[in-house]
Each structure stands twice: as structure tokens, then as C-alpha cells.
Amino acid sequence: MFMLFRPIRCFKTVAGNTAIGVLALQGNVSEHIGAFESAIKGLDLDIPVIPIRKADEIPSLLALAIPGGESTTIMRLIDKNRMRDVIREFQGGIFATCAGMVCAARNLIDETRFSPLDLLDITVSRNAFGRQRESFEADLKITGFEKPFHAVFIRAPVITSAGSDVTVLAEIPQGIVAARQQKKLILSFHPEISHDLRMHEYFLKKVLSLS
Amino acid sequence: MILEDLRFGTELIKRGFASMQKGGVIMDVVSAEQAGIAEDAGAVAVMALERVPADIRAAGGVARMADPKKITEIIDTVSIPVMGKARIGHFVEAQVLEALGVDMIDESEVLTPADEEYHIDKTKFTVPFVCGARNLGEALRRINEGAAMIRTKGEAGTGNVVEAVRHNRTILSEIRRLKGMEEIELVKRARELEAPAELVIETAKRQRIPVVNFSAGGIATPADAALMMQLGSDGVFVGSGIFKSQQPELMAKAIVEAVNHWNEPAVIAEVSKGLGDAMRGLDVHALPPDQVLQNRGW
Questions:
Q1: What pTM does this model have?
Q2: Would you say B28 is a known binding-site residue?
Q3: A24 near B CB under 8 A
Q4: What would the mean pLDDT of B58-68 be, rounded to a whole number?
Q5: How far is CA A70 from the centre of its chain?
Q6: Do B154 and B161 contact (CB within 8 A), yes or no?
Q7: For a Cys staple, B204 with which of A184, B16, B178, B226, CB 3.0–4.6 Å?
Q8: Which residues pair with B25 in a beta bridge?
């Protein structure tokens, strides 16, 4: 008798590591979770997205997103929750936006109150555009993107210098605003609030090589 | 990027700024030194004031915007956002605060209102505003005027959380009551709430107000802060509660951690140990009517 086996669901599950975590200490956490969930659904993947509040939840993740918020607060809470070494040793992907860029930096300009995580060789200037009244939105040309990305910069940082192993994806007169090194994607702006999922999709497809 | 196409002060940027404060503690400070302590403790922002609400109560008279010199000193001291308070309806105080470079303006009932008919038209400003509310209608009226963040009014300067709890519960219960209503019912409800129908419809659909919702007015301990978080707040303002306590540095750090671990009683217990006296509280029911701040604004 001839039988045809057909899976009912055609989601592609990712073997091994389990989930995408969004560091949920302070800031724009739910927006990142929502954007990742929509991007994952759009790519027909089946990966849960979970908020991360404890250090021991990090090592098994597929990737960790460090969201926007206040970098001094987030760094203080990273240390208070003993996450610094765990994040530094984490081998999965990193998706860091705005305050996340500050946290991920090797060096910070004019900032002695805290030391960042040194996840990649970048020097970052905090509040590089000025105060909130100087926050802006604009269409940004990004390498690898066919159409410009509508980027929202809120008291945003920029990368002022980057090591030779860091690939610059977008640069404006004030500095580098999007960069990538292996499985790490670092952005000055907030792709989670502009209702454009291409940045999250790019991270899943190109940076993590899923789909 | 085409530099002529940069857009400043849009609703997305204003609400985005407010959203970045989520899960955070915003602390009232009256000096650069206090601002430094707040920043080191992990505050997401500071509110630069002439006096904390408890001292405004004690001083009486007309309470106004802080001295611009003081605000500038605080801005120069910290790297986190600095907020300032303008009197209800006093759009020139708000213009001054914007010119000084404050990151968010609190149109606040803690100061003496300058206009008893109209709040500030907040859409005219580049910087975002936060406004107090006691109920859903008040919150939505402020959002309609351009507020990017809502906070409960509570009863500032009392160290008594009861009014913040009341206002928070009122807003949440009014949102829940919208659930399942048909559009024509929502339009009718909007008339009763004295709020724009489209905002009522959006609130009903999302089952939350369209902007970030913080708690304020009477939060004095780590447990108070965690209470407001468990009641569904996105974050808290602590006014007199920190620098009117016996050990402000410890209290500030403890409240930041309690907000971070708002759902973990064991952590709240741990951080609450040995903080010394919290600020002395006031019985809200014993306040003479002219000293009740929450009834300012409408």
C-alpha cells in the first residue's frame, strides 16, 4: 500500500539551542519581543522569544537581544544580577540596540561611571547627537538592504571607531550607526518601534543563518 | 541619509523616549549632588526641582518651575535624562525648560496651576511631556493634548501610597470595563469619560492606554514601588521618598532593585533590610482640601 507522509506543520525548527532571549532588566523589552515574534512568524520559523531576567537563562539561548533603555541603569542591573561574565562568555548571537550598543562596547568616550561589556572592538560615544530635543527619525541607507530603513534615533549613541574585524553597515557624519561582527549586530537606532521588521529578519536570516 | 529629511519631535520619538524609561525609577532631586546619587543608584532619569513635594507642602505659597541655573547644573552633572516640572497650563515655563535642554517636561499638579481652564498644548513642543491622571478620562485627555507618558497623580509629598494605588486601580478597571463593548457603546462611553472616541476605541482594543503608564505620588519604600509594578505600572516616580528618607543612597538603590525584581518577594525583602526610616508619612484624609494636590487639573 502506498502511503504519503506529510507533516501537518511546515515550520522549520532549529536544532540545539532553544530560544531568543531579550534582556529584561529595563527598557524597551516588550517591543523587541513583539518584533522578534512577528519576524519569526514571517520567516516561517518556530523559535520562542523569552524575556531574560536571570544569568543562568542566558547560556542556552540562540541569541540575546540587549534592548534600548538607560545604559547606566542596564549596566548596573547586569552587574547586580551577576550577568556580566555570563554575557561576555555567551557564544550565541547578540542583537544590541541603542543603550545595548553602549553596553556592548569595548570603550566609551567620556564615561567613567561604569565599564561596558566589551563584546566587540568598538568605541562608542553616548548621547552623540545631544539631548532628547535632538532625537530624530530619518531614512537610513544600510548595506545589504534594498530600500532605506526608517530609523528612529532616541538620545542615540554612535560608534566612533571600530576594529578591523567589525563590518560597518551604516555610517552618517556623526559616526557608525550599524555594524556587525560575526554573530553580533549592533545598532544606534530602534528597529523595534518603527514597524519595519527587516532588521530583525536580517538578524535571524543573515546573522544567525536561520531559515 | 538625507539630512534635510530628519524629523524631530514626532509622536513616535516622544513616545519612544517614554518607552525607554520602562522598568525604571525616576527620582526627584534638588541639587547636582543628589542627581549624582540618583544616577549612581541606577535611576533611569532625574526630575530636577527647586524643592521636593514634601517641602513644597511645608513651604506653602506659589510653587513654580525650578531656577534654570539649578536645572543646568543638574544637566551638566548626569548623563541620564533630566526632566523638569512646569505649572499646569504654563506653556512659557515649558518653553524655558525645553530651551534649557530638559529631556521631558512634567506638567505637574505639584506646582501651583497657572491656568485653571486649559492644560498646555503639548503637541507644539519638540520634547515629550508626562502628565498626571486620576482616571482613564483624565489620562486620555492628556494624551490627546500630546502627553507621551501618563503617571498616576497619587498624592505627592505625603509618603502615602494609597492615592497612587487608587488612581492606578481606577484606570485599570476603567480599561477592563471597555472590553467587549461595541464601537457605538465605546463612543458613548467616550462622552461619559470626556475623552476622544478614537483614543477610547484604541484603549479598548489594546486593553491599555496608548502611552507608557507610570506610578507617582506617595511611593516611599521598595515594597511601595513593587506594589505599583505588580499593579501593572510600567515604572515609578519617587519624589520625596528618597531624599526625605534617613539614608537616601541606600533607599535609592533598594527601590531600583525592587522595581527590577518587582515579582520576587524574597529579593524585595532582602533589599528592604536596614534602610533606616522611610520619609515620615501623612494621612491623606487629614489634609485640608486646599492642600490636596491631586484635584489640580481636570
A1: 0.94
A2: yes
A3: yes
A4: 94
A5: 15
A6: yes
A7: B178
A8: B236
